[in-house]
Amino acid sequence: MRELIITGEHPLQGEVTVQGAKNSVLPILAATLLTSSQVELRGCPHLRDVEASVRILEALGCTARWEGENLVVDTAGLNGWTISDILMREMRSSAIFLGAILARCGRAELSYPGGCELGPRPIDLHLSGLRELGAEICEAGGMLHCRAEQLTGREVVLGFPSVGATENLMLAACGAKGTTVIANAAREPEIVDLERFLNACGACVSGAGSSTVTVEGGRPLHGGTYTVMPDRIAAATYLCAAASAGGEIFVRGARESHLSTVTAALREAGCQIRPDAAGIACVCRERLRAVGPVRTAPYPGFPTDAQAILMAALLRSRGTTVFEENIFENRYRHVDELVRMGARIRVSGRVAVVTGVPTLRGASVRCTDLRGGAALCVAALGAGGVTHVTQIGHIDRGYQDLAGDLRALGADVIRTEE
Ligand code: UD1
Question: Are residue 211 and residue 326 in the same domain, yes or no?
Fold first, then answer.
């Protein structure tokens, strides 16, 4: 059985280094399609979603090879514009390739991404934005057929600050004639990282991190070397792990500026959080307190990707914490599994009410999605007895070695393979 076996109630102690950011490297891998030569991505995490992106690049005629922790991508051989249904299904965020393929090839064909474990995953904002840049997009039989002899820059106002739509439009705009202004753009740090990567390759992008991103298109992009930013959600996971198990850890590479809503909640719960230039220290010695309402929102609001993880850390707190999930429709699937461990959680629509219990007990639980899976591990670290976490393929999508990292912090975690 492929699973993580976690024996809880061992306080954490030590240091862990945060991997490169999954949500940064995926759009950057799509962006390599805009370059004419070799790109070396330093600190690229080995993840299932990265492997899926590499398979898409290879199917399009590009090559990619690992050199230790660096991934070297060469797009000189690009010879296709179609992503098969099988490859699209491997990773729901593969729609991010659309803008780049369109900009480079003038056409793109891929299957509609459909739903995912978090609920429906529409890409209407991506498509309407690309249409505004001049793409002709026809949706037939679950396939998207896109053409654009010449994309043309203009102002595109997003109805919602979608991360993926902002990234897709930034990539398409690099290949468009003239200036594109993306208004109501997402402001996530990963958008800033994408801007930095594109500019390092010769693009002219500005404004990332604010609500208005401007792209001067039409510049040829060259290859280069780029270091991916640290993963703020992995960092949040380790901080919450220490909050759940107790102890004192240092998360090297974590940036407080990216995590301020998460660290504010942990401080309110009673953890000592000490950021410095190298990372964040977290000390948790006592039973935590419940915190004020946690409402997920686009950055700089509380990240939806950290909702399950913080919830897991607060299961044994004193008092009641209200969570409100405002980004995805179906993001409480971890709750039933946490309840199996003795948690008291009531869900009603977008709201989950967590009433702290004195103790949790180990149980057999199943990952329902990536961050929900990480949350089960966080809860297990604070539970009495042994927890068996199955369907850990979800966790492998976003964590290079969660079990190894937790072990490095003194946790009792064993990974078994089939
Ligand atoms: C990205 C992240 C994901 C994170 C999410 C929100 C990556 C690879 N993934 O996903 O981990 O949870 O941001 O921070 O970076 N929507 C539409 N129409 C669209 C696009 C989005 O209705 O065309 C909706 C989505 O269904 C969702 C919300 O907008 O309810 C947010 O989606 P978006 O910001 O696009 O998230 P992703 O880019 O998919």
Answer: no
